Amino acid sequence: MSRPPLHDVAHLAYIELLTPEPEKSLWFFTEVLGLTANGGEGNSVYLRTWDDYERHTLKLTAHDTSGIRRTGLRAESAGALGARVRAIEAAGLGIGWKDGDPGIGPTYAFRDPDGHEIDLYWETEWYSPPTGDLRPALKNQAQAYPGRGVSVRRLDHVNYLARDVRPCGEFVADVLGGRVTEQIVLDDGTLSAQWLHFAQKSYDLVYTQDWTGSAGRLHHVAFSTDTREDILRAADICLDRGVFIETGPHKHAIQQTFFLYVYEPGGNRIELCNPVGRLVMAPDWRTITWTETERAKGQAWGLKTIESFHTHGTPPV
Ligand SMILES: [Fe+2]
Fold first, then answer.
1. Is there a domain that residue 306 lies in?
2. What is the tally of structural domains in the chain?
3. This model's pTM is above 0.85
4. Domain shared by 96 and 23, yes or no
5. How far is the CA of 56 from the centre of ligand 1 (A)?
6. How many angstroms is it from 15 CA to the middle of ligand 1?
7. From ligand 1's centre to the CA of 313, what distance in Å?
8. Which residues constitute the domain of residue 257?
9. What span, in angstroms and rounded, lies between the C-alpha atoms of 88 and 97?
């Protein structure tokens, strides 16, 4: 048994993704995934999923290589933000306060033990759709369903690669107030992956061991759809649009997420996922530990884990 999440971090909010193919990546996120562009500055374009109540979900930045530059987490309140900043500073991993990106208030930047940069903030500007096609019929929806490409609903999780999983998981649990829901422990005792959550969604951040021994890299980011069937349609859409499909559609054994993995044109691995109705409600949830033998059986319905899952990360090394 482990303690329930502190709920000082409310949810995963946004990511900044780097791409050496900015025009093609922008096409992928708007036309294939169905995100909506919402402004830009310098080498970056802001994009949003239709269910995001905040201004943006993805900051896509032209760069000489791929990878994730930062991850944004929204705090539960101003007080929760202050409490987490004190804990991060005590852990020695703070960078400092800065102005947030457009729509985001004062932001505290820090790094996890593997060097991934994370933003934590409370103040945010709620999205107000302009008139026209973006305006939803129902006032409890942020934006009209785009009906374009996969039309992903929201950002679901970020899966980092890390040189050493254990200190990263401990940091998210002990300092940010998350909780490990599932993990993989190899026969020699190596902790090779951990799934952590901040609320009742069963995972928000994931750490997987980086077999190259590099630090600060990305395994994938995941966007979720409303249904499992949307993932099957996504595979057809990606096939027709010439998007590289790495593996799936299939169902994960761990977390039971229905999935499809593709590479966006900049090389970053993108998961299209559907978590079905799964939530972790138990305050005394018992961490699920998967063994090496269990992992060797592959995914839920027997699909073997594809070799490139162990070799492809961004930026490439
Ligand atoms: Fe994932």
1. yes
2. 2
3. yes
4. yes
5. 21
6. 15
7. 13
8. 154-310
9. 12
310 Cα: distance to centroid of ligand 1 (angstroms)? 14
Distance 154 CA to ligand 1 centre (A): 14
Same domain for 160 and 63, yes or no, is no
CA of 262 to the centre of ligand 1 (A): 12
What's phi and psi for 13, nearest 5 deg?
Answer: -115, -50
- Considering the domain architecture, whether residues 281 and 169 belong to the same structural domain is answered as yes
CA 111 to ligand 1 centroid distance, Å: 21
Q: How far is the CA of 299 from the centre of ligand 1 (A)?
A: 13
Per-10-residue mean pLDDT of the chain, 317 residues long, equals 90 98 98 97 98 98 98 98 98 97 97 98 94 93 97 98 98 98 98 98 98 96 98 98 97 97 98 94 97 95 94 96
Ligand 1 centroid – CA 88 distance (Å): 26
Beta strands in the chain (DSSP E): 9-19, 36-41, 44-48, 58-62, 67-75, 94-98, 107-111, 117-121, 154-162, 179-185, 191-197, 205-209, 218-224, 244-251, 258-263, 269-274, 288-291
